[in-house]
């Protein structure tokens, strides 16, 4: 009987994942076809997002570049970040291998419970989607590795070893960036490196299989990340687009770089000075795309509010009230997260 149930669960998971099931045919299944207004639109080629070299120029210059990028775009690429290329290739490869395993190796991790430390899901994972997104995702609480590694998938068999190397390196880079941003905002150097960024760091493996007709589908809808910052590796396949002045810009892959994007927590802490960028992922016809995100968020108890030194009642009154991360998560998981204004409505102070 147990075996029968497991078999049924396997079949259910297989049907839902875009890396298996219905999506491997030559036409896009009805459930994945967006209405004309929601389909991917053309991108502007006039702009591209800034590239910041962490080893070029003085620290003050780097800080200035980051702040300019953060104010203008809410996103930038970072190069010369100190993480070895080989490790970056390894983590992308192992993520791809995970999704390309037989369904019986993945099904045990499938869950629709967003509080799980390790879980595999499809689309956005916890909201009833009217139309499905062309993405599978493995999300893992990951830092410190020793605390969570027993929950990482057992296969591919080098996954734990690679995570053990990558996560501490990634975390070091995150810390360095947070110190530079704190400096740029005129905050104490450690303002952003305590509880504000020490909630469980998530490693997010995204997998977008080839799609028979990318013009009808979306990998991820327009959204802002609900985190402090996200660092993304996107290998050599494009698919990420960011919104800038009402135009979509494609974030083209740059080998060995991270895409750093600012999340809603940082927008609040900076009282709106740094923008959480709206972004989406589109699909492509020819190759599977694997991206890896490190998502940095506050602890659940930490109070999030505009930093005191950045507000003054007279000239720069606070735009957001105080809240805790779970309050924002609640809104994200129940409301229409595609719309930044709707997401933030409850947290904005009405003047
Ligand atoms: C995300 C995200 C974009 C991508 O995981 O939040 O926006 O290119 N990913 O995979
Ligand atoms: Ni995102």
Give the key terms.
binds N-oxalylglycine, binds nickel (II) ion, alpha+beta, 351 residues
Question: What report would you give on this structure?
Answer:
- With 351 residues, the chain is an alpha+beta fold.
- It has one domain (2-24, 43-304): Jelly Rolls (Sandwich), CATH 2.60.120.
- 28% of the residues lie in helices and 18% in strands.
- The chain contains nine helices and 14 strands.
- Strands 1-2-10-7-12-5-4-3 form an eight-stranded mixed β-sheet. The chain has a four-stranded antiparallel β-sheet with strand order 6-11-8-9, with no helix packed on it.
- Helix 2 packs across helix 6 (159-185) and helix 3 (85-99) crosses helix 6 (159-185).
- Bound molecules: N-oxalylglycine and nickel (II) ion (NI).
- Residues 223, 225, 279 line the site of nickel (II) ion.
- Nickel (II) ion (NI) is lined by residues 223, 225, 279.
Outline the fold blueprint:
Layout: H1 2-16, E1 51-53, H2 59-72, E2 75-79, H3 85-99, H4 103-106, E3 118-122, E4 136-141, H5 145-148, H6 159-185, E5 202-208, E6 220-223, E7 229-233, E8 240-244, E9 247-250, E10 258-262, H7 264-269, E11 279-281, E12 289-296, E13 303-304, E14 323-324, H8 325-334, H9 340-344
Parallel strand pairs: 1-2
Antiparallel strand pairs: 2-10, 3-4, 4-5, 5-12, 6-11, 7-10, 7-12, 8-9, 8-11, 13-14
Helix pairs in contact: 2-6, 3-6
């Amino acid at each position: 009987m147990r075996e029968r149930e497991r078999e049924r669960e396997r079949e259910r998971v297989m049907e839902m994942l875009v890396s298996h099931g219905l999506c491997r045919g030559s036409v896009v299944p009805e459930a994945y076809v967006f209405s004309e207004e929601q389909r991917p639109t053309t991108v502007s080629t006039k702009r591209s997002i800034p590239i910041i070299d962490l080893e070029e120029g003085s620290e003050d210059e780097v800080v200035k570049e980051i702040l300019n990028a953060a104010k203008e775009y809410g996103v930038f690429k970072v190069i010369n970040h100190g993480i070895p290329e080989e490790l970056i290739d390894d983590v992308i490869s192992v993520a791809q291998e995970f999704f390309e395993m037989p369904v019986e190796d993945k099904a045990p991790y499938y869950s629709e419970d967003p509080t799980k430390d390790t879980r595999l899901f499809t689309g956005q994972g916890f909201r009833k989607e009217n139309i499905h997104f062309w993405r599978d995702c493995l999300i893992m609480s990951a830092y410190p590795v020793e605390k969570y590694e027993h929950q990482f998938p057992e296969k591919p068999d080098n996954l734990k070893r690679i995570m053990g190397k990558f996560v501490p390196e990634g975390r070091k880079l995150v810390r360095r960036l947070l110190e530079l941003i704190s400096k740029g905002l005129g905050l104490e150097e450690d303002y952003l490196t305590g509880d504000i960024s020490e909630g469980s760091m998530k490693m997010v493996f995204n997998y977008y299989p080839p799609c028979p007709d990318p013009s009808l589908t979306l990998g991820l809808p327009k959204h802002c990340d609900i985190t402090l910052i996200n660092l993304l590796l996107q290998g050599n396949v494009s698919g990420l687009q960011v919104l800038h002045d009402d135009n979509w810009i494609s974030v083209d892959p740059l080998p060995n770089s991270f895409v750093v994007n600012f999340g809603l927590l940082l927008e609040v802490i900076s009282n709106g000075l740094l923008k959480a960028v709206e972004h989406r992922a589109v699909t492509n016809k020819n190759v599977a795309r694997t991206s890896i995100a490190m998502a940095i968020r506050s602890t659940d108890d930490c109070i999030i509010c505009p930093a005191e030194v950045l507000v003054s009642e007279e000239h720069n009154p606070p735009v957001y009230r105080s809240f805790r991360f779970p309050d924002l998560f609640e809104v994200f998981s129940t409301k229409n997260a595609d719309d930044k204004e709707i997401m933030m409505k409850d947290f904005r102070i009405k003047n």
